Amino acid sequence: MNVTCTICTDLFDNTSDIVTVPCGHVFHSQCIYQWVESTEIDSACPECRTNFTKKDILKLYFNFAPNSNADIPTLKNDIQGLSSQLLKTGMDLRYTERKRRELQMYNAGIEKSLKHLYQKMRKLKSALDASQQYAESLRNKSELLTRENHHLIHELPRDKSIPAMPGCLVEADEILHRIVLEVTSTCGTSMGKRMIQYCDIIRRELRLVEISLAKGTDAFY
């Protein structure tokens, strides 16, 4: 309980001499005696103006709890400590909020990069599918040319008077070489090697055709 002296407005503590007057109001002993001496013969209570004399002043005795008055500076220190903690908590919250916004921006950047990578992967997959289809088309054409060569060789006349055409094989080699280069640049080295194998087969077929034309026979088949 915090009780103050009306005259000096200070709190009573366990070291204070506390007195009361007939009306029941309490004061510091030193304060009330100075009050009485500063007035005339009839003194009045500083609070309710009830008249009293020095003989009416009674000393009071209180049993204060240990360290009861020491709670005031302790409470002040506690308040200061709590204020410091509150200030630090506010700073921590602002720092956390700033970091949260930075993480949001970082995550947005990662999501944008991932989206770009997914789009690039889809484009690469489409290009790979197109290359595989193109390679398959070239393989089918190669097989078709091989069958046509066989058919043409069997359909050739057996007259030896038909002149050989030595330039045909050279032109065919040039065409096949261009096809191999195109497939290698478009579909990669692995597919290019396969096309080289197909082209070698076609070259052998063309050489046999040239020999057959020169000799007028298909005895090699």
Explain briefly what this protein structure is.
Helices cover 65% and strands 6% of the residues. It is mainly alpha-helical and 221 residues long. Helix 2 (71-155) runs parallel beside helix 4 (189-215) and helix 3 packs antiparallel against helix 4.
Q: Would you write up a description of this structure?
A:
The protein has helices spanning 29-38, 71-155, 166-187, 189-215, and strands at 18-20, 26-28, 43-44, 51-52, 58-60. The chain is mainly alpha-helical and 221 residues long. The strands form 2 sheets. Strands 2-1-5 form a 3-stranded antiparallel sheet. Strand 3 and strand 4 (51-52) form a beta hairpin. Helix 2 runs parallel beside helix 4 (189-215) and helix 3 (166-187) runs antiparallel to helix 4 (189-215). The radius of gyration is 57 Å and the shape is rod-shaped.
Residue stretches low in confidence (pLDDT < 50, at least 5 long) are 156-166, 217-221
Oligomer: single chain
Helix share bin: 55-70%
Strand order across the largest sheet: 2-1-5
Largest sheet: 3 strands, antiparallel
Whole-number mean pLDDT: 77
- Share of β-strand residues: 5-15%
Distance between the termini: 125 Å
Q: What is the approximate shape?
A: rod-shaped
Total helices: the number is 4
Radius of gyration: 57 Å
Helix and strand content put the structural class at mainly alpha
Tally of extended strands?
5
* N-to-C series of helices and strands: EEHEEEHHH
GO biological process, one term: replication fork processing
Domain RING-type: 5-49
GO molecular function, one term: zinc ion binding
Keywords: Metal-binding, Zinc, Zinc-finger
